[in-house]
Amino acid sequence: CLGVKPYACTMCDMRFIQRYQLERHSLTHTVKPYACTMCDKRFFQRYHLARHSLTHM
């Protein structure tokens, strides 16, 4: 069953093939440990913060 995504996020319309993918995604709605020092945005992954930081340059 390629393409079947039985795990649905309850906070948005994202769907996932595996449960761990849904669990990891769910953190994006709650836990955001990486904070921008130049504005009030927060990010789930360090990479996303680094990419965002470029907008302040």
Automatic annotation (TrEMBL):
The keyword Repeat applies. Keywords: Metal-binding, Nucleus, Repeat, Transcription, Transcription regulation, Zinc, Zinc-finger. Its main location: nucleus. It is found in: Nucleus. It comes from the Eukaryota. It holds the Pfam family zf-C2H2. Belongs to the krueppel C2H2-type zinc-finger protein family. This is C2H2-type domain-containing protein. The lineage of its organism: Eukaryota, Metazoa, Chordata, Craniata, Vertebrata.
